[in-house]
Amino acid sequence: MTGRTTPVLLHNGLLIDGRGGEPVANGAVLIEEGLVRWAGPSGELSAHPALSAPARRIDVRGDTILPGFIDCHVHMAAPGGALSHAEIAAMPLSLRTFLAAPRMKLTLDAGVTTARDLGGADAGHREAVESGLLAGPRLLVAIAMLSPTGGHGDFRAANDDGENDPAMGRLADGLTECRKAVRGVLRQGADWVKIAATGGVWSPTDQPGDDGFLEDEIRTITEIAAGHGGKKVAAHAQGRSGILNAVRGGVASVEHGYEIDDQAIDLMLERGTFLVPTLTTANTDPDPQKAASWAYAKKKHWQSVARTHIPHAIARGVRVAMGTDCGIAEHGTNLREPAYLVDCGMTPMGAIRAGTSEAAELLGLAHEIGTLEAGKRADVVVARCDPLADITALGEPANIRLVMKDGVAFKDLDGLLA
Ligand SMILES: [Zn+2]
User: Fold this and answer.
1) Which residues contact 1 (CB under 8 A, 6 or more apart)?
2) CA of 285 to the centre of ligand 1 (A)
3) Ligand 1 mean position to 74 CA, how many Å?
4) pLDDT tens readout for residues 102-160
5) What's the pLDDT tens digit per position in 41-68?
6) What is the pTM (predicted TM-score) of this model?
7) How far apart are the CA of 180 and the centre of ligand 1, in A?
8) Ligand 1 geometric centre to CA of 327 (Å)
9) What torsion, rounded to 10 degrees, do the Cα atoms 381, 111, 5, 29 define?
10) Distance between Cα 119 and ligand 1 center (Å)
11) Secondary structure letter of residue 378 according to DSSP
């Protein structure tokens, strides 16, 4: 694109700006040069100096205007439940990458304009989107999960002493190896560092209640990441002991957090640690035909653990950012997560904040994205529903009429901007 483009005015919609205040019944958003120039009640705009240039007026009566959503936990390199880790590991790397392209578009079409990929996608995925080569959400990548031997990033069978697939997990034990592993992913362009603070469901030789890295290993990793431009660490942490190790070690977000208890909640409230409960994957039933029997049993047990512990953490006011684990769950179902958060006790507005302004806070991008306010990037979703009346409607991609990222329409079901 060259030169100045005509500003676009979305008006007559229910405006939910992501900040959590009252929605505006007849709201408008003025978009110019990739940025939000103004957002508020339509009636206040006519007299406003922001509307100096003539704008294309798009009437979105009956729809809701929202900020583009932010999914803090995806895996673009994973298929969404249809393949085993062994099958993925057997694939040429180039094929894994090509397969990620349509998943990125599905995610964007679901209404997600920014996503944090917590393992499997390298910096090239981010750059392909940034350069305009691929249509997808703006990506922050962790490249590969760091894990102790036999931990959640170790996908080798017990009798296999060969190399672990480095795209799936980088194994490290002790402070020296942890230093090397974190420097390795930072060298490859990681925006975030992902660690295994507990075992998990799909790793063959551990349990979600097992400890992963210990507190001193985690602290070493968070310190090194912090010393590289203030980068932060996300911890896969399901059992209570590993959740505590992760929080004490200084991670910014506890991923899953299924067995979170009051001790961890107190510490997280004190430190401002976020919980990313990934209820989309927690609510995905494993396929008994495809899942190994050991994985099936783990998944069923830890689903019920999550259902008892997560609502308590939400009731106590732990900061929650939206993340789905799509890649393990089906791609493109990202905006089912707000309804799951509501099932766990959040208000619909709270769940929308978790997927917009709160997620932006976790990612350190609150100055750029997460709300519809003057000066923010024009990441905008128009939904054919009132999510405050029916939050589940957001999770149906057919209801997502328009998705704009940086002011460019990537999905426009009804040709509003055609
Ligand atoms: Zn994950």
Assistant:
1) none
2) 16
3) 6
4) 999 999 999 999 999 999 999 999 999 999 999 999 999 999 999 999 999 998 888 98
5) 998 887 777 666 788 999 999 999 999 9
6) 0.97
7) 22
8) 8
9) 20
10) 7
11) -
